Amino acid sequence: MQYQYVTVDVFTDTRFQGNPVAVVLDADGLSTEQMQAITIEFGYSETTFVLPPNDPVHTAWVRIFTPSREIPFAGHPNIGTAFALATRAARRNEVVPDRLIFEEAAGLVQITLLKEEGAVIGAELIAPEPLSRASHAQPAKVAQCLSLDLDDIRIDAHLPQVASVGLPFLIVELASRDALRRCSPNLAAYKELLPLDGATAIYAYTRDVADPTYCDLQARMFTMRMNEDPATGSATAATVALLADLANTGDLTLRIRQGVDMGRPSLLLTRVATTDGAARVHIGGACVGAMTGSFSV
Question: Model's pTM, two decimal places?
Answer without folding.
Answer: 0.94
